[in-house]
Design goal:
Blueprint lengths: L1 H59 L2 H6 L3 E2 L6 E2 L2 H32 L2 H12 L6 H19 L8 H25 L3 H9 L4 H12 L1 H16 L3 H6 L10 E3 L2 E3 L3 H4 L6 H10 L7 H31 L4
Antiparallel strand pairs: 1-2, 3-4
Helix pairs in contact: 1-13, 3-6, 3-9, 5-6, 6-9, 7-8, 9-13, 12-13
Length: about 325
Amino acid sequence: MKTDSKDFTDQLSSTLYFRIHGVFESVYATIFFILAILTIFTTIGIIYFLFKDALVFFSQYSPIQFLTSSNWSPVIPPKSYGILPLLFGTLVVTFMAALVALPIGTLTAIYLSEYADKRTHSILKPLLELLAGVPTVVYGFFALAYVTPALRVIFPSISPFNALSASLMVGIMIIPMVSSISEDAMSAVPDSLRQAGFALGATKFDVSTSIVIPAALSGIVASYILAISRAIGETMIVTIAMGLHPTLPEVRYLGPLPYVHPADFLLETGQTMTAAMVQLAQSDLVGSSIAFNSLFAIGITLFFVTLFMNAVSNLITERYRESY
């Protein structure tokens, strides 16, 4: 009887435990679901208000002129809202930052994943990721106060506000994103693939470049796209170091062939889409004016650019993803 009573008590306790545990699981699931829905509705709300005010702008200003005009002057008459100079400045900074960050970040990831010992890895990776925690305004002032004077030694005619120093600092800022994500992708490659390469007589360099990198290609390329998207959306560095004067470089001709000299846009002041939004937001604009609504037109353009980059990243990741 005592044994039966004890078994009954244990069974009852177990039943109560699982029921209480089930109630808590249901509560957790509900909370997580609400937070997920809240995130989705927040995103939809941002997109809705962007489109809403952008459509107000495009009802007052031609979308074709907005996308093709080479003059951006939203405050000083004659007013013009051509986004080409801003788009060009954004692409210049993004391209130059990618030239800095992608090779350095990839080589750093290869070293941390394949060459560094555990002690070196435990020291270098946190120090590298510390760069991601530095406020971007600090990068901007560093570019203005130190990088530009250093560049003036090489390029005496460089402007105090220029695209080159801004691009270099944006590139340095996104290096941790490239190296960290790429290193994680390389570390996820099974050691059996490496050992197979060594068994065939391959060197560590051969294994790193011919086995590990191809196997981790989806993660590496995804880190590239995410870092470039981050560079496109950077604000404070370009606002401080690049200036607030949107310009397009002069088109020169070498015989019948048109070209643009790099010094005409790298060593001169310029403006990106994000910097233009900061400038407009700080000016005395009336909320219903066309200049104010142009903020949202720039924002929706930037949204589509970054959306395209993220879509490309997802496609590449799915296309080249390896399952181990």
